[in-house]
Sequence to fold (661 residues):
Amino acid sequence: MNQRIAPIAGAAHEHAQEQTPGATVRLTAAQALVRYLAAQRVACEDGSGRTEPLFGGVFAIFGHGNVAGLGEALYQYRHELPTLRAHNEQAMAHSAIAYAKAHFRRRMMAVTTSIGPGATNLVTAAALAHVNRLPVLLLPGDIFVSREPDPVLQQIEDLQDGGLSANDALKPVSRYFDRIVHPAQLLNALPRALRVLTDAALCGPVTLALPQDVQTMAWDYPASFFTPRLVTFHAPAPVQTEIDAAVTQLLRAKRPLIVAGGGVLYSRAAPQLQAFAASHGIPVVETQAGKGSLAWDDPLNAGAVGVTGSPAANSLASEADCVLAVGTRLQDFTTGSNSLFANARMVSINANGFDTLKLNSVAVQADAKLALAALDEALVNWRAEGGWSANALHRANDWRTTVERLTHAPQERHCLPYDADVIGAVQRSSSHSDTEDIVVCAAGTLPAELHKLWRAGQPGAYHVEYGYSCMGYEIAGGLGAKLARPEREVIVMVGDGSYLMMNSEIATSVMLGAKLIIVVLDNRGYGCINRLQQACGSAPFNNLFDDCAQGPLGAPRIDFASHARSLGAQAEHVANVAELEAALQRARAAARTYLISIDTDPARTTEDGGWWWEVAVPEVSPRAAVREARERYDDKLAERGGRAPKAIERDDANDDSTSNA
Fold:
């Protein structure tokens, strides 16, 4: 008969107990889950040999689906696994994701919600984590397995499948999903979940749906299941045949180019990338996720690439004869809708095999650091053509000079500043800091301007979520970054549209003492989409406040500073860039979250750089501007080698309904 160890409060005492072979401990499923998470350890990043928890904590908004079971377990183990209260489920998941991103996927957080709206609020955040290959553990409550109280409050009833719940909406956006219908299932589900969260090839969101009655069921767990473990992070080593194929392609190249993606940062390969590029004379361009892989002033760093790219990076990309894509999933903003690298052979290094296959690449499924080391060893005496390297150095230096000019331009009187002016002011305020700031952003015009203009001096200084381009991520993401890097100043740059979508975690940041500096650029609407709308020939409509349906009182004039103060932050509104610079110094000296709002021009953007991005334009329209935009679109498709979709041919194609469309 197995020896049974009664559970006691405090996991530290439990772990310290002498455990005999075959010993068990009786715990509820919720207690077992929390205790298992608290037992996972990782090596400290400082190289000291010390360890720290893999999970930095659990964000929780309690409801009837998780308060009694998981809530009680979190209370019991609150010293080993801190619980943090948030104000919005999607936002707290964003914060957890940002925490993992700021730790380069080496630490992470869990999130728990109730069974209904709380659970479905996680879907957007799960999709964001899935697209960006970032780890987060989602623990939504679920309906009763017994189904005795059926339907329970907030339950979604499916008329064809009695086993479905709201949590099934999370299946398409989870890298691993399980519904725990018996406490014993945790013995398999938790190690599987942990593997996905810590494997570079699998990494993404994990959902463990927790029926509320199962959370409270007790079972005799093996005591060894809760022994503290040092987590090993998994990443594939390169296969020699794939390295050989990549070497063959590179040896043929005279004008090679490196595209640095987020995988460079997650594999801690920035030093290897810098050494590889310098040794072989290869210019480097950066994706949104990879920005910071090289310091902004590295001679070979030609800047941002793609639709939001610099002229230096994009000219090199269009002229390169071989592109080495490292740790990037090659989304359309990077590739210019597959038009930018048209003249190059592609070699793709990625831990995720799915991503190595894009653009007909020579595939190297491997950790970026290991693959770069293997390539470097095989290419000892090979360098890019001298003229190509010299040209790249010249273009990169010219772009740095242009960035200096754009971000230091004097503001004209009676003209609103635009994003570059604000970015310049924020960047200048950073020069007074002892440690490099972390800038956080996500959607709208700002990511494009930041990608081109922000000067990231080290990995992690640039934290922009653009894989999912999710409005509302900014403030919540800033909170997660601050929790991960409390010693750094975290500056959230956000447009008024994103701010209005999700701002509740200002209150959480104040409550947790996680100070943020938030700069709100108020252009009175969705300026980015308003410009895209007009570029496609459409009239300005339903984006800027002035172009929206309005009641008799008109559009509101929103006082963002007053709103932030109502959430507990310090705040002020400034009239110009000079006032902004002074306010930023006050914000740095403040002890709590500090918001600064400034009015900006919704129409103006940086003209330098950029590349075509495919946005389909209507084939038939009564507006001449739309028809002209369609002609330009067709021309671009022809340049890329594609063609516009043809309308279905019909015998009555010339009837009145068609001609008047």
Summary: The longest strand covers residues 136-142.
